[in-house]
Amino acid sequence: VPAAPAPAEPSAPSLAEVANSPRVAAAAAQTIRVDLDKLDRLVNLVGELVITQAMLAQRLSENEMGSIPELSDLDHLTRELQDSTMAIRAQPMKTVFSRVPRIIRELEVETGKRVRLEVEGEMTEVDKTVVERIGEPLTHLIRNAVDHGLETPADRKAVGKDGEGVVTLSAAHQSGRIVITVADDGRGIDRARVKAKAIERGIIAPDAQLSEEEIDNLIFAPGFSTAAVVSNISGRGVGMDVVRKNIQALGGRIGIQSELGKGSSFSLSLPLTLAVLDGMIVTVGDQTFVIPLTHIVESLRPGIDEVHFVGGQSPLLDVRGTYVPVHRVGEQLGVGGATRQPEDAVLIVVESDQGQAVLMVDSIQDQRQVVVKSLEANYRAIHGLAGATILGDGRVALILDVDALIGRWRRDGRNGGAFIEDLAA
């Protein structure tokens, strides 16, 4: 009896069969590709909806129509739509963090140091624009941590450390912002050396009395470097000043914590999106401005004994024992009709990378979320202004770039209205 033929081996499914299988089709149905231009248009339209809703609320308020439940529902739905739209643009920081291991390997070869990279929070999401623009400053900080921060294996062992240095890169959401931290367990900032180098370069006066925070911030001065030898990594006087400028351009701030012999930590605090911000609406003369809430520490009407005048310099506000310079926003931005006496004005204590300052305004009108309109796209970039917004009553309010303004005031030491003449310089 002839043997029965062996059953045929099942053939492998074709690519077409795999692609059309129910499992693959179900997975594909969960995602859809959208052109970025269409997404940007959606974001802009939602922004216009937010502005229109604010205008409607303003008109009803002016007509004393009282509380309308449907308007409250509209506000809630508009906010939810806005948040959902922004979430579509969000990307994980992994997009940027994934490039860092290669940078570390290259630096190990260039410096002869041993480095272990630790990454945390790489799936933390932030707006696509922030992800695209954070790469360059992050690269500068990584290179700085390895070259300036970490010691050579021999030097580390001599002080009782492991020969392999550690660089930690992390990201986390904090108070409606994203905080990205680059830390190392290296030598820390030698503040005496930093101050000496700043004096040598004429950045500060020899008799300048600076706090530790102010000394740390000297490393952001243009052209500043403590490197003894110029290399492909350090000593060219570029890098850290670029980092701060790029972070400020994103509406962010950079902070430093360092302990000699134990290491340093650089923290970047950035908005989750550049399309909206929470701001305080203030008036200065006949103009309206927006101050981002992330910069505001407190606001007050000062007593006569709280403001001090020293020579021809800016007034100083006594903030719990610390004297903080008062800047007359109207005078320095060339706005007519602004209050000139601090005791008749509202003083807003703000904080930037370069310390605290006080902005003198006429009044505080409101606190609200505003849609940011780019000046560069609609007019031209103006130093000291981060953008503009349209308020509920149809007025255009300029958004103050607090970091840029304080930096310019400190650098120039100006107190006069001539400041506005070169805002666009």
Short description:
By secondary structure, this protein is an alpha+beta fold. It is built from 14 helices and 18 strands.
Structural account:
This protein is α+β, with helices and mostly antiparallel strands and 425 residues long. It folds into three domains: 36-90; 93-271, 2-Layer Sandwich (Heat Shock Protein 90); 276-422, OB fold (Dihydrolipoamide Acetyltransferase, E2P) (Beta Barrel), CATH 2.40.50.180. The chain is 35% helix and 27% strand. The protein has 14 helices and 18 strands. The strands form four sheets. The chain has a six-stranded mixed beta sheet with strand order 10-14-15-13-12-11. Strand 12 (316-319) and strand 13 form a beta hairpin. Helix 6 (100-111) packs parallel to helix 7.
Q: Give the averaged pLDDT, no decimals.
A: 83
Q: Round the Cα radius of gyration to an integer and report it.
A: 27 Å
Uncertain regions spanning at least 5 consecutive residues: 414-425
**Would you tell me which CATH topology of the largest domain applies?**
Heat Shock Protein 90
> How much helicity do the residues have?
25-40%
Oligomer: single chain
CATH H-level superfamily of the largest domain: Histidine kinase-like ATPase, C-terminal domain
Total discrete domains:
3
Count of DSSP E strands? Answer: 18
End-to-end C-alpha gap = 100 Å
**Architecture of the largest domain, CATH level 2?**
2-Layer Sandwich
Q: Beta-sheet strand percentage?
A: 25-35%
